[in-house]
Sequence to fold (445 residues):
Amino acid sequence: MFKKILIANRGEIALRVIRTCREMGIKTVAVYSTADKDSLHVRFADEAVCIGKPAGSESYLNIPHIMAAAEITNADAIHPGYGFLAENAKFSQICADHGIKFIGPTPEMINAMGDKITAKETMIKAGVPVVPGSGGLLESVEQAKVLAKEIGYPVILKATAGGGGKGMREVWHESEMERAFNTAKAEAGASFKNDGVYMEKFVEEPRHIEIQIAGDQYGNVCHLSERDCSIQRRHQKLIEESPSPFMTPELRETMGAAAIKAASAINYESVGTIEFLVDKHRNFYFMEMNTRIQVEHCVTEEVINHDLIKEQIKIALGERISGKNYFPQMHAIECRINAEDPYNDFRPSPGKITTLHTPGGHGVRVDSHVYAGYVIPPYYDSMIGKLITVAQTREEAIDTMYRALSEYVIEGVKTTIPFHLQLMKNEDFRSGNFTTKFLETFKLQ
Ligand code: MV4
Fold:
């Protein structure tokens, strides 16, 4: 058993990890920047170490500061949460070099999925469906034009070091190729210090459906069914749910098997997610793998009734997973409550929460680190918390969500609550009739 886990993160996920550690009898160390000295993760951890100034590079992304905190507190493992250093292969390696267990995958596993062209090649070898495309890097605009003609327009250019939409360009006609190629390359270079781009057939109006997987240290991998994350705005997820309203038992079977193949191909250890694009004919294609616990892991927890952080820690301890897959027994929906103004292009709205009333009651879960009087700092993401509802049916989960959103009172900052309230009454959302394009035409009243 781990005696002490250092949590290299902040906000709700730091609190989420502390909660599970408490239940497992594991001591916790919080690290915090000066901007987070009054945060709940600092108060609820057994020990807390200030690791620097507010900027991420001076604190939550600063490996020497975090390693020093781990050494002085004698932590035997580090949980990275999501974001920050969660998918940093160097950090995973440095933990290993210091005899501290990184609760997540090895550097090799992170690297195998970090470069998208490498990941795609690995998936093709493993027999996981991928979108047809250039295979390797594009060498020139001319080559891009020739390839696009073969593949057929529309195509999409993607950064090999990317993910999450940066350095991506749709190209609908040859006349747009030169501009798209140059801007995609420039954006990739500026964002990732790697300007390599590749090409794929553009899948129109897809759904984003991801499969949660878990792999142990002995090569066993299982899947924990899907989450539908199609409701996104500019690559920011706003709602996630499980099961997907678009799912069928047959599709779950084939996508689950493909996700297991994907994770097995890299001998994956820890919990992770295989993201797929699903077209209107229910063809599915590997998009990328997230080698971390995700924000939306809670919807899976609610529908399969398992604590994924506990599973992740047990895997890091060397426990075996049973090898059976898990299927949704309930329906769960998560709304991301952000300090953003949905009436003003979702502009961040940091500041002091003057009044807070959190919803409760049957089927309601709130994962949040905020309290009345808490000041949301401007330096990090704007998430206030996650509101999750669970019920026997999707319709009931939506109705419970509307009720819970109506109870949620947050004053002092603008929030995404009005957006979610309206969405819960939207006919297309309620009928499950949506793709990743949905929010492009959704108008807030
Ligand atoms: C695509 C695509 C259509 N066709 N690839 C967006 C983030 C990155 N992970 C991949 N993304 C996409 N890749 C092909 N071949 C459309 C998207 C996409 C998208 C995917 C999932 C969720 C929301 C999205 C919004 C816009 C574009």
Q: What stands out?
A: Residues 131, 156, 163-165, 200-203, 206, 208, 232, 235, 277, 287-288, 436 surround MV4 (CB under 6 Å). The chain has a mean pLDDT of 97. The longest strand covers residues 207-215.
